[in-house]
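Cross-posted from the bioinformatics board.
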Amino acid sequence: MTGHVLMMIVAGLVAGPLLGGLIAGFDRILTARFQSRIGPPLLQPFYDVIKLFGKEKQVVNVWQAFCANAYLTAASISLVLFFLRSDLLLILFIQAVGAVFLVVGAFSSTSPYSQAGAHRELLQILCYEPLLIFIAVGIYLHTGSFKIEAVYALKQPLLLKLPFLFLVLNFVLTIKLRKSPFDLSTSHHAHQELVKGLLTDYSGPILALTEIAHWYETVLVLGFCSLFWTTNPLGAILLVGITYFVEIWIDNVSARMNWRWMLGYGWAMGITLSLVNLVWLYVR
Amino acid sequence: MQTITFMLILLPFLGALSCYAIRSAPVRSFIVLSTGCILITCSLLLISYVPFTFSPETVFGLDVHGLIQIPDFILMFAILYYGIKHRSILVIIPAALQIILVIWFEVFMIADHPTTQAFYCDNLSLIMVLIISIVGSIICFQAIPYMKNHEEHLHPATSRQPRFFFVMLFFLGVMNGLVLSNDMTVIHFFFEATTLCSFLLIGHDGTEIAVRNSVRALWMNSIGCLAFIVSLIMIYRNIGSIDMQQVIRTPAGAGLSFLSLSLLCFACFVKSAQFPMQSWLVGAMVAPTPVSALLHSSTMVKVGVYLALRLAPAMQGSFLSPCIAIFGAFTFLAGAALALGQSNGKKVLAYSTISNLGLIFACAGLNTPESMTAAVLLIIFHAVIKAMLFLCVGTIEQHIESRDIEDMRGLYAKMPLTALITVMGVVMMIMPPFGLLLGKWMAMEAAAGNIFVIILAAVGSALTAMYWARWAGTLMSDPFAGIFHLEKQPALTWGALLSLCTGAGILSIAVPWIYRGLFTAAMNLNYAPPYSLKNGILENAYGVFAVLPLCLIAVLGFLQSIWAVRGATQARICPPYLSGIHTAEPRVFLGPMNKLIKAEAGNYYLSNIFGERKLTVWINLAAGMLLTLIVGGAL
């Protein structure tokens, strides 16, 4: 039992950066192909992070170092808890800790780009956080438990019972992966009006930490996706693969929107879809 | 046990009287300190006796019920007097009606007084006594340096401190009396006494706005008291008893009318400043900050949620229960939305109190063992952390002479330790593994079966995280070169802030033991202990919260991050990116056309969405409708 737990902890800690980095590399190649470019090698994200670690340490405010470390810690713990098949709400709350620390770190610089980015990130958190809770509640209403364990005990894929909540999760995924139309606070490319937004004043080894933490978060959210097809590993991989492909496609075909649109659209669509799905589960 | 109970109730009265009588500052400080210390000791001693119930035959030759009657009338006439003095018809009418009803009730209805247990103390009362005595005393300690500073600033003709500390200590005694009493007429007496105390404290400064807000608090709470006495009369007519324990053992509908219960709940909502009666608590921030700390954390507003939790067993299975859950969850969301639109630090704290109390009401309404556990944890942690945050804001306000969040930008450079404690308070408000979030987690899992409650709670929770994170970020936002100058503060201020901060941290780690002590020893007959406890991990059939392991990881993560800060102090400190050439002056850069430009950034308060003016009307309307549903549905 303890051996199994230890193995899962190690697996979670390793899988985050490894899978996350690979996914990021794959993402960059695919995006390049969409835009008729060849793109960087698959391992480029790893090279980038290693290079960042080799840079000189510069800070605007020493508390940035605290915040980046806390972000990484929270993100890795939430993924480890996911691997341990723990409580969904607990994982969400811990993931939120990381997100909030990243924002506080951005606030600790007086650069207006950083500040505006931090506020937009808070609005993004405001937009997706309730939707993630609705997904957890939907899983609870169907399985009778908040533990991920219960999802794996199901005989039928969750997707068949929670189709609308899966759409809501895709919405969250677009925000979480910092893809258009929701790459408001920062994105993988420089912004025309916000430079690098939230991440403007993180640099060098500290920026590398936030990058790794982002990988952990990516794997976590994709992990949530995989929960919708747990009966067959191939099904899970297929579902996650298709979802991610659609995300990249959306990123390439849509323009960046403002936060009013995100909050209005996100809550209106997200809450309606969740409500429909929850009522459906509830009545049954 | 009897001695300790009497000490807890009567000692603050004695301390209060001597504060009023002896007009010397050092003696007064000594009295406040010693009263507080004895109170804390007594409340800790009480732990080993719980649960108990007793009824003294006579006190000074009178039974407790009779003993209360004289002060009860004095109190009601005092409220009437203040109503006439301030020419507020809204105070006079409920106060006069109340006097008539109480006379009618005492003389004509319960001529032969039924036997009741005068005092009753279970784990719920114990928790309240501990919060009142410990947190309340710490606030009174901090008030000593605060009030000295306050009067040096205001220069009143005569010092009003004797009156101030008289009411503060009196308040603690009244609160202890309220939570330890079992006779509902006695509870009503103390319920009213808290109203008068808060009126006196809110109006302390005597400015025009202070008087206006205190009168508003008086009339709103008088209506609550009126609802209480009407409900009391109905309960007595229904079941012929005014013994709280007998009342809650009578299930709703069977003898006990819904209307009496819903009126009692209404009284609780008023006392806990739920919408649409929130304006008295928001207005209360004109008082000196220790008053706000006291009202918001350990006294006054906690009365409402305490009584609601007391009454919860009586509401089990009735339609009232889910109604209260929805009402509470709505307040949670609405309070958070209004807090988001505020840049005034004290107002943010006020709305966050209303919001958190709403969540506790929602827990009482959900009425499951899990939600009751959540409610008790929320009460404990909210009291400690909110007291701390108010004291922090008070300290900051006396230093920078503003309570606006925008003016606290970069406070870390000026008051590093206070800023850090405030940030710590914010972190404990919204983050695991701290107790408040544990309570919220339990509440959400308990609410998952009720779609309305969970949707309101989920959105409210996200709004909560946003306004707290914004505040914490603002406090830390300044170029900082790594030099740490500890600011000067009186020892009592540091003592209060640091003890509350470490207290909240230690309590969070101690949650498994608190849980075992409180809940496995059957808190209440109707609620079985909901979680199993193993290796410091709380678990039930559908959820698991690893309290101790998470605390351990949090401590390790914290130390590692602090280590990283140490490393960063050796790093090169560079100016923030401004998209231009930096000049010698911070935040000013050379822009296009060689012009000097000052970079400025302000927070989003989204006041055109979440502003008070925009939202309050609609929230009050919706809350009023829900309330009508609760009271009207009971008819």
